[in-house]
Amino acid sequence: MKVYTKTGDAGETSIIGGRVPKDDARVEAYGTIDELNSFVGQAVHAAKQSGYKEMEEQLLLIQHELFDSGSDLSYAKKDESRYKVTADMVERLEQWIDELEQGNPPLERFILPGGSALSCALHVCRTVCRRAERLTVTLARSVDINPEVRKYLNRLSDYFFVAARAANVKAGVPDVEYVRSGKVFR
C-alpha cells in the first residue's frame, strides 16, 4: 500500500461520507486533535522517563480516546450509532482529576507552565487541547457533532492542568507561580 494517494493534491480531503476542502472547520478541529495526540505521545514518554506509571497509562488511554474524538468529528452527516466518545469517558476524566487534585498543594495564584519535564509537556497538551476545544465549538455552530467530544475536550484540558501540577509534586518541583498577581484563589 502506498502512503500517498494524490487525491488531496487539489486541496480536498476525504471524510467519512464525503470530501471537503482541507481547511474545512471539521478538518481544522480533528486535525488539531491529531496534533494534540502527538503532544500527548511526548507526555507519555516524559511520564515513562519519570517513572510515573499511573499517569503513563492514563495518557496512553487518552491517546486512543483522542483518536476516537477525531473519528467522531469526521462524519459528513451525524451518525450517533457510530460515535465512540461517551459520557462515561468524561466522568472517568473527572475521577482522575479529583484523585490527582487531592495530592496537589492548594492553588493560590495563577501558575506559569513549567517545573518538571513532564509538567511542561502536559501544559503544552493543555493549551493545544484548549485550541482543539475552541475549534470544535466553532464546528458545532455549523454542523451536528457528537456533543460528548466537546465535553471530553473541555474536561481533558482540566485534566492536563491538574496532571501537570501532580507531575511537579511527584518530581519534588514547585509550580512556577505568576509573581505579578496576588492570591486569587482561596
UniProtKB/TrEMBL annotation:
The record's annotation in SUPFAM superfamilies points to: Cobalamin adenosyltransferase-like
Q: In which pathway does it act?
A: Cofactor biosynthesis; adenosylcobalamin biosynthesis; adenosylcobalamin from cob(II)yrinate a,c-diamide: step 2/7
Catalytic activity, EC: 2.5.1.17
Which Gene3D superfamilies does the UniProt record give? Cobalamin adenosyltransferase-like
Q: Which GO molecular function annotation, any one, does this entry have?
A: corrinoid adenosyltransferase activity
Q: Where is the Cobalamin adenosyltransferase-like domain?
A: 3-166
Q: Which reaction does it catalyse?
A: 2 cob(II)alamin + reduced [electron-transfer flavoprotein] + 2 ATP = 2 adenosylcob(III)alamin + 2 triphosphate + oxidized [electron-transfer flavoprotein] + 3 H(+); 2 cob(II)yrinate a,c diamide + reduced [electron-transfer flavoprotein] + 2 ATP = 2 adenosylcob(III)yrinate a,c-diamide + 2 triphosphate + oxidized [electron-transfer flavoprotein] + 3 H(+)
Instruction: Write out the entry's keywords from A to Z.
Output: ATP-binding, Cobalamin biosynthesis, Nucleotide-binding, Transferase
Q: Which InterPro entries match?
A: CblAdoTrfase-like, CblAdoTrfase-like_sf, PduO-typ
Claim: Nucleotide-binding is one of the keywords in the record: yes
Q: Which NCBIfam families match?
A: PduO_Nterm
Give the UniProt family note: Belongs to the Cob(I)alamin adenosyltransferase family.
Tell me what this protein is called.
Corrinoid adenosyltransferase
From what organism does this protein derive? Paenibacillus campinasensis
